[in-house]
Design a protein that fits this description.
The protein is an alpha+beta fold. It has 3 domains: 2-81, PH-domain like; 120-349, no CATH class; 353-386. It is 57% helix and 13% strand. The protein contains 13 helices and 10 strands. The protein has helices at residues 67-119, 122-139, 146-161, 193-198, 202-217, 220-239, 245-279, 287-295, 307-310, 316-326, 336-345, 353-363, 372-382; strands at residues 2-6, 14-21, 24-29, 34-38, 43-47, 50-54, 62-66, 170-174, 181-183, 188-192. Strands 4-3-2-1-7-6-5 form a 7-stranded antiparallel sheet, covered by helices on one side. The longest helix is centred in the first third of the chain and has 53 residues, at 67-119.
Length: 386
């Protein structure tokens, strides 16, 4: 049986005659040079329809022959055995990588996010927050009612004064088609006009703002940023930032992590938010009724959109019960005139969906007439999750 010998010294292969025996492999070239490779240590690698053989006793040399010829020589057992070992090693290696990825996403990233957030320099978070704030400002326009904005800003400052945060807390109302409030790194809090409309009393709105101030104090926002950065780095390492099934799987894993740890942070922010209200001499009785209405959103079509506020939060009924147990009386968060100004800041005082949509279109510079039925349908769609 013939094969080609690459001796590692010359680029031209030598044609050799090959013999296989129980103790190993013998082959000789036309020039009469003979070699022997013992079976022990013989390595066989498949490449296409060829078998490439090597041996530690002759590390620079490679013997190449057709796989069919190698099998005909009686080397099939060795080839199959080594092939299965390589396949088993590959499967074990891939499984180990998969377990490592899973452990990193579900355990490593959340565990280290908290210490990283606390160790993040204040200046770094502030700069990051300024960048986030600019991006959010481009997406969600600031409401025009300055009297209402001033009242919200003053409320945020009063609550921040009772908190242990180095950041300058800034609260503002924005136009957004969903019921929510969210804190950004560095101290900014955005409250949507739809949430202001759903709040029935100043104390309910104050409870939401206090909740977000607590997120800033506990640096929950920065923890979420570090979790996102960890998942992003993992994406680059595993799937190269692509858009295939691997990326989607890791993204879903990251979302599940955020949900699990986000619920713990939400409960902590509930309790701390009520403490901030009490410390400022304000009523903390607004949190429970707000959560109770959010929990009953499915029963009241007017509040269907409110489910957005609690979609990634703990069970609203359970939160409401805890808030009610901890609630304490106090002064109203806003005077009647301040409450009216806040309600009017984004047209939130109007319950008429057509009027709200017209106001939004006018603020965006779109004066084109819209059919009233279409307006109502669009507004209902806008109130749902985008």
């Amino acid at each position: 049986m013939q094969g080609r010998l690459y001796d590692g010294l010359s680029s031209r292969p030598a044609t050799v005659e090959i013999e296989w025996s129980d103790d190993g492999l013998r082959f000789a070239s036309d020039a009469g040079e003979a070699r022997f490779w013992p079976q022990d240590g013989l390595k066989v690698v498949r490449e296409g329809d060829q078998a490439r053989l090597s041996h530690p006793s002759d590390p620079d040399a490679r013997l190449v022959l057709a796989e069919a010829d190698w099998i005909a020589l009686g080397g099939s057992v060795a080839v199959e055995k080594r092939g299965r070992i390589r396949e088993a090693r590959l499967v074990i290696g891939l499984a180990a990588v998969g377990l490592s990825v899973t452990a990193f996403v579900f355990w490593g990233v959340p565990v280290f996010a908290g210490p990283l957030a606390r160790a993040t320099p204040i200046e770094m978070e502030q700069k990051m927050g300024d960048s986030f704030d600019a991006q959010m400002g481009a997406m969600f326009h600031r409401c025009e009612g300055e009297a209402g904005q001033d009242a919200l800003g003053d409320l945020g400052e009063r609550l921040a004064a009772r908190s242990d945060t180095p950041f300058d807390v800034r609260v503002r109302a924005v136009q957004a088609p969903f019921v929510n409030a969210f804190a950004l790194p560095g101290g900014s809090i955005l409250v949507t006009d739809d949430l202001i409309r759903e709040a029935e009393t100043p104390d309910e709105l104050a409870a939401v703002v206090a909740h977000e101030v607590a997120h800033i104090e506990k640096r929950h926002v920065m923890q979420a940023v570090w979790r996102s950065l960890g998942v992003g780095l993992l994406l680059d390492a595993v799937v190269g930032g692509g858009t295939g099934a691997g990326q989607q799987a890791v993204l879903l894993a990251g979302q599940a992590t955020d949900l699990r740890y986000g619920r713990e942070a939400e409960l902590e922010a509930d309790q701390r938010g009520q403490a901030l209200l009490v410390g400022a001499g304000l009523s903390s009785q607004g949190m429970a009724p707000f959560f109770e209405r959010m929990h009953g959103a499915g029963e009241d079509r007017r509040l269907e959109a409110a489910a957005e506020f609690v979609s990634t939060h703990p069970d609203s009924a359970r939160r409401a019960q805890r808030a009610r147990n901890d609630a304490k009386p106090g002064a109203s968060a806003l005077t009647p005139s301040e409450w009216a100004a806040v309600r009017a800041s984004c047209g939130a005082g109007s319950k008429d969906p057509v009027t709200r949509l017209k106001d939004r279109l006018r603020r965006r510079g779109d004066d084109a007439p819209v059919d009233q039925g279409d307006q109502m349908g669009q507004d209902r769609q806008a109130s749902r999750r985008p």
